[in-house]
Fold this sequence. Notes:
- By secondary structure, this protein is mainly beta.
- The protein is 12% helix and 51% strand.
- It has one helix at 3-13; strands at residues 21-27, 31-35, 39-42, 46-50, 56-60, 64-70, 73-78, 82-87.
- The radius of gyration is 12 Å and the shape is globular.
Amino acid sequence: MNKELIEKLRDKIAEYQGQDVFVKLENSIQFYTTICNAQIIISDQKLVISDQKKQDFIVELFYIEDVKIEGNSIYLQLSNDLNIILDY
């Protein structure tokens, strides 16, 4: 993932701090969950969304090929034919 995409993701994901974050995985895996009162950490290598109790959602940024933002939603397209949608 290039630095421009990381910065685009970093700027938008800051809005998610403390929110209830809806996570949806699509394509080869289908999964839905909500992480309540989310705490967000984003480094140059990983995105971590955690409720600091039971749920951690971790994305390796290396696999992200594209980031799209529409309203409150973030769409992540991964190289392994997996799409992640984040919303609050």
